[in-house]
From TrEMBL:
InterPro entries, sorted: G_IRG_dom (IPR030385), Immunity-related_GTPase-like (IPR007743), IRG (IPR051515), P-loop_NTPase (IPR027417)
Name of the protein in question: Interferon-inducible GTPase 5-like
Family (UniProt): Belongs to the TRAFAC class dynamin-like GTPase superfamily. IRG family.
Pfam families to which the protein is assigned, alphabetical: IIGP (PF05049)
Organism, scientific name: Podarcis lilfordi
Keyword Hydrolase: yes
Length: 344
């Protein structure tokens, strides 16, 4: 999401968040991110802070500082810990500090080895300073994640993402896995596992409807499940228009360049009833199933059992195949996004 894009938090030198502000995830609007007021301000003392921001409604907290953490930050973390919720210290805009360090050391930015060595030294200094800073404020075993303002794949952001996922319960973990950005092939593997679980559940729903002995009911339900799940798969793997545009802006490449490597997955606008019907018509398995099912739908019990099994098989097979193709395309998009920009 861009700084000044629709739905983005207001940037500014002065404190802009005076009340808890809700923001929807750009692709999954049911997932909410809350920007909370800065603790320690004149309006929000540490003592009253948690009550004012309605503490109980949030799943976890990220305490962000672009410089040193304060005593108020650690007091907040202590209260969060007492209430048995997770929190994460994040040191942001690390790239700015790295650039400052390079300049202070007179590093030649055209010398790749020297540049990378200076980056490692700067990160070590920032990490130690953040650790010592929090220890001095009373944190017994502080854990700090260093992140870039511009490139989410750098420094500790992938580790932060992985840590947050691991420390949630199963339901929240699956939701997070689906909506967090793809930064590595491991991200794709996790998303695939989450989607395989969803496909199984949706195939079972299809099976339960197929047990109802009403002609054509199962078919209409199957198509609805297929359309909605295929669109969801596209969004989860960042293959929808909105996600591709966000990625293109983040990596500084034309969106058409990213789209050029997508071979198997259609745009979400093309995934319609007609699209699914076309796939079904070209499926030999579905053709054979349909002929038998249309006859058995009029035979009680036997027709219901066959209908349930055939609905499960059709839904599972088509969605699994669609998922495999989406995974291949997502890996290609990730590789294309990671390619160095061509020099003009």
């Amino acid at each position: 999401m861009e700084d000044r894009g629709e739905g983005a938090a207001l940037p500014g030198v002065k404190e802009t968040t005076m009340v808890p502000q809700e923001y929807s995830h750009p692709t999954f609007p049911k997932v909410k991110i809350w920007d909370l007021p800065g603790i320690g301000t004149t309006k929000f003392s540490a003592k009253e802070y948690l009550k004012k921001v309605n503490f109980s409604k949030y799943d976890f907290f990220i305490i962000i500082a672009s410089g040193r953490f304060t005593e108020d930050d650690t007091k907040l973390a202590l209260e969060i810990h007492k209430k048995k919720k997770k929190f994460y210290y994040v040191r942001s805009k690390v790239d700015v500090d790295i650039d400052n360090y390079r300049r202070s050391q007179g590093i030649d930015v055209d010398d790749t080895h020297e540049k990378m060595q200076a980056e490692k030294e700067a990160l070590d200094i920032i990490r130690k300073d953040s650790y010592d800073n929090l220890k001095a404020l009373g944190e017994s075993s502080p854990r700090v994640f260093l992140i870039s303002r511009w490139d989410l794949s750098k420094y500790d952001f992938p580790l932060l993402q992985e840590t947050i996922e691991k420390e949630q319960d199963e339901i929240k973990r699956d939701v997070l896995t689906m909506c967090l950005p793809i930064l590595t092939k491991d991200s794709i593997k996790k998303k695939k596992a989450a989607m395989e679980s969803l496909i199984w559940k949706n195939a079972m729903v299809s099976c339960s409807v197929g047990l109802i002995p009403l002609p054509f009911l199962s078919l209409s339900c199957d198509i609805g499940i297929l359309v909605s799940t295929m669109i969801h798969i596209c969004k989860v793997f960042g293959l929808d228009e909105n996600s591709l545009n966000i990625l293109a802006k983040r990596v500084g490449k034309p969106v058409e360049e990213l789209k050029s490597v997508i071979e198997h997955t259609p745009s979400t606008g093309m995934i319609t009833t007609e699209f699914v019907m076309d796939i079904l018509k070209r499926s030999a398995m579905w053709g054979a199933i349909t002929v038998v099912e249309l006859v058995l739908d009029f035979i009680p019990v036997l027709g219901s059992l066959y209908g349930g099994g055939s609905s499960f098989a059709t839904t599972f097979y088509l969605l699994k195949n669609f998922l495999e193709n989406a995974v291949k395309d997502a890996e290609k998009v990730l590789a294309k996004a990671a390619e160095p920009k061509r020099r003009k």
